[in-house]
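Hey all, sorry for the wall of text incoming. These are the two entities for the joint prediction.
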Amino acid sequence: MPVALAPLLAACGLQATAGPAWVGHERMAWQMNGVLGTHAQRHSGGVVGVRVGSVIDHGIALKSGVLHGGYDVLAIPGWLIVQPGLDVGAGQAVRHVFDGVGAYGGGSLEVRFRFWTGDRGASYNLAFPACDIVLGGRGGIWMPPEHSNTTAVYVERTLDLGVRFGFGSDLTSPSQGEMPSRVTPSTAPGGAR
Amino acid sequence: MTARLRWLLAALAALLVLGCGKPEVRNPVQPSPFREPTDGGFLAGTALVDITPPLHLSLFGHGPEGRVATGVRLRLHCQVFVVSTGKEPIALVPCDLQSPSAALQRGVAARLSYYGIPITADRVFIMATHTHAGPAHYFDAPGYSGPFSSSIPGYDEKVKDFLANAVAEGIVRAFAAQRPACVGWNEVNLTGLAFNRSYVPFLANDTDGNYVAPILEQAHAADRGYGQASAAVAPGAGHAESSQASLATGAERAVDPRLFVMRFDARAAGSTTCDAAGPPLGVLAVYGVHPTGVANTNQLYHGDIFGFATRVATACLSDAKPVGHGGALSFADTECDATLTVRDDNVLVGLANGVEGDVSPNVQFQSVPNARRLGRRLGVEIARAAAAIQTLDAAGPFEHAYWELWFPSGRYDDSGHELCEVAELGIAAGGGARDGPTRLRVLDAANPGFRLKLPDGMKEEDRPCQGYKLPLRLGTAPDPQKFPSYGALGFVRVGRARFATVPAELTTVTGLRIRQILTSGLGTSSIALVGLTNQYLQYVTTKEEYDFQYYEGASNLYGPHTAEFIARHVDCLAGWVTRNRESGRPAADRWVKERCPQPLKVNELSRFEPHPKPVVSRMPEEEDLALLALDAPEVQPTFEDGAPGWEMTFPRLPITFTADRGKYRVVVLAGQRGNVVEDDDDGASIETQELLDEQRWRVRWAPELDAGDDICDQWFRLAVRGRFELESKPFKPDCARARRGLP
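and here's what came out:
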């Protein structure tokens, strides 16, 4: 069963982070993010995902939804990943600074330390888990909608710390192996003897 | 309560606690002194053991492609040979299993200890025939019980106990049946029966040594001459041995063709005369080929080619007559066609597997008729080789050595080089062998030859331990306990007969190299190399073959130098045997300690720590089905798997019935009087199978039409005997129609 699902779920992860956020000149707020996104396996590569942002304030209130695109750089394969990325989304900033559903655009930088995985070193792994500690920072601007109470643009900055549970499979990853050109008895080593 | 009473109660409670904590085999007793009267000559006892389990266990050998057993084609047997010279008996036990397991060997030894039989684990040699149609679930190593090991994986203590009980009971019977015996030995070449399925890696081997070079040369010569020979032989010119030889391809030459046969004849106590007087007591043969004549879609228990071969050889020899003076026997080839119920009082023929790692059966396609044809030929050749033995010995050397080696990080040379610390399979193993491919072959990576990409010019010492192997994994990092950590080398000599055993499948050249070492160590090349004994460490290839990462190389668990590790220790064992004989054990122990990488523990047992995972319950419990009286069913002609047959169906029986011949057997009755002409254990291919709806059973009889044409003019009935009695309506085989392949 895990193998049958492997191609569908391969190189996906679920990430939960939390940290302080600042919007404009408002005081700091605690925010929490959930991310469902892809990650690079074996080789550095592009990733996509969606992020849901919320604010922690006498409970958790959903505030925004963001599409995320980035590039995983496998700084130390199997151990350390650095990911710069871009975000486009909609919703509200972590502080109520405008009315209505605003638009968001920004960038992010994330560092992930893979503290546990079933897959270090060269192998062909049909399905394996991975757990990362995530440290990141984001910055972007919120644009209020038309007819909002303000027309000002707000800068939002956040720091994030959290964990990521990932799942990988070599069924969908670039291979670490090769099929040498087909050998026949006459071309095999020793065949000429 | 008085103090005395309190003490008494406490003592009783302690006894109760101890009693509850006892293992299943309780009160192992010290072996009783061996009191068999002896004249100093050989003693031998034989016993046939039926190890056919109940239905619904997974079949083992084809990984996840293997099916769950829904029936029986040939009953699974172990043939037990207990041999001694009056003390320290050994048990040689070829079994219709895919491979042995340490849990099984230790389980058998524990039972023997319980029964007071003086055969310890180091004297039990369970030699799997490697049929891929035997049960799973008795392996203590998680790699053979976990995901992908079989279609419904898991370790079941009851399956292990079922097998261990059966084998132990057989050894007890053979031990008790020991009688003065003569022992003979023969070795013949048998070609055309097999081919090398990994021919390209085979050709990559260095032409080292006296054994490897000629076979490589033969293979090359055959490849060069194949086209010319094909053209030179006129169509239909046929089957002369010379024509066959010249038509052999290089791959057919690239195998070890040796068939070894040890024969036991009964003799009078005190007599040293070994002239043949009738059929032998038993024959133990060794030949190397995968018993994979039937494809991995099979759902029935059977011994495949080896199962057919032992039955045919039994039939050949059961009526053998002495030829003049000496040990030679003769039998008519027609005897080999005779069907005969395999029983304890027949000649017991056992067949262990030899150097077969890269050797497949030479069939055009896998099918029951083809497996039976090959088995027939092998069986006849075994019987001929046994019958041809002129000289048997009443007494002679009797030696035994057993050395459990620790493989993880095992040193294989004097420079301190070591095997890999953790056993791993390569991805190319996931696709299965040529005669048992799996669905993973849709992935390019799971095909023979796919290997780790290493930087050009990378030095050997910089490579990962597993070299070109791209390890196949699932989930977390490799588990050091997934595959067995130790395996035993063994050596047995009974007169002229010599067996060296290894716990793995050796490729042809690995086997030849080990034979070369044994030859120089023991002074003779006539040594049967038996694989798959007492433990299963999968394949052992040469370094050259390993680097190709074909199926065998990818299944070489401890890395590219495993063959060197085994060869080195075989060399040590041969040296120990020689010095033990010449100078005694202390000198032999000293010699090995000075020369060999691992601490010497010849004839001692390692600590056995099983880690089976997952543990399941697959062994069916006894069912309580009402057995109804039924009307006689009709028999219908069928054509399946390339063979015509006749079948009847009836409501299902308890699936545990197949494990007990007292409860269930099928026979074919002929004529008005209903004489039993065939039995479901005689190799005539009477199959019992549960049908898909699990509500009915089917019995199918698929005789060889060319072997007994008289069946075409007779009336028959199929009958079930045992706890449930049933006879079909009479039917007359329409042979002409059947031969045309029409049902």
